[in-house]
Write a structure and sequence with these properties.
By secondary structure, the protein is an all-alpha fold. The chain has 9 helices and no strands.
């Protein structure tokens, strides 16, 4: 149990803290966190499946400014742990991951508010003293503390609460458990719907329905659909580039025309 808790905490820290260590490279996304958790817990296939499923769920969850709707990294590691190290099935683990992401988002907001309020005066004093080394120490110390505390909470939760969580799940009536599993299967559709609501345009509707027909009715695999999409996309991109280049040349010619006319009027 201790080993599993350490491995889960390590996977969470690598992805969660690593995202902000390497300029927000998106390694905290479920598709990456699921892979890392699967590698450390010894079940890469389950990690990839859970990560891909949760990526579809949280794909439309966008955190803008201080508004943190969900924190999917903790949810992914937790779901992979529950699916690989307990008797909980994958659908139930996915459904339980959603409230975990909301609790983690609350902790994320709390840590940001606390650190920003206490760190700002130190930054001002160090800047007044032109203490570059002090700023570096404050930055790395804040970075470690910012991500170590949530990881520690995550570690303690898994270490102390895994048996309780499993007992709680086993104590849920079958009817409710089936409802949770059904809701877990519907969550990817909800995530895709949220994403489509953000990017939907009537000009792109034809491509969406084309992909649906190719997959649902013609039974083409995903790789074949991606190849068809690239065949359609590349000529469109090349045409758009030609139009932009033509517009740019037209603007340059229009900008150069007044100066030429002024020179001719002056010489005449």
């Amino acid at each position: 149990m201790l080993t599993n808790a350490i491995l889960c905490a390590l996977a969470y820290f690598i992805c969660y803290a690593g995202n902000y260590f390497w300029a927000q490279n998106m390694c905290d996304r479920p598709i990456v966190a699921g892979l890392v958790a699967g590698i450390l817990l010894g079940d890469i296939q389950t990690g990839l499946i859970m990560g891909a499923t949760l990526e579809a769920i949280f794909m439309g969850a966008v955190n803008i400014g201080g508004n943190i709707s969900a924190e999917p990294c903790a949810a992914t590691v937790f779901a992979v742990y529950m699916a690989t190290q307990s008797s909980v099935d994958a659908d139930t683990a996915l459904a339980l991951a959603v409230p975990i992401s909301m609790l983690s988002a609350f902790l994320f907001t709390l840590m940001n508010n606390v650190l920003c309020n206490f760190q700002a005066p130190w930054v001002d004093r160090l800047c007044e003293k032109n203490d570059t080394k002090g700023l570096y120490r404050l930055f790395w110390g804040t970075w470690f503390f910012r991500f170590f505390v949530p990881v520690l909470v995550f570690f303690v939760g898994i270490l102390a609460g895994s048996d309780a969580i499993e007992a709680f799940v086993n104590g849920i009536p079958v009817v409710i458990l089936n409802g949770i599993s059904t809701a877990g299967k519907l969550l990817p559709a909800v995530g895709i719907s949220i994403l489509m609501k953000m990017v939907w345009q009537k000009e792109l509707a034809g491509y969406f329905f084309l992909g649906f027909v190719l997959f649902k009715y013609l039974g083409l695999p995903h790789v074949a659909i991606v190849v068809i999409a690239l065949v359609i996309l590349v000529p469109i991109c090349l045409r758009d580039k030609q139009l932009l280049d033509l517009e740019k040349r037209t603007m340059n010619m229009a900008a150069a025309s007044p100066s030429t006319n002024e020179e001719e009027d002056f010489l005449s």
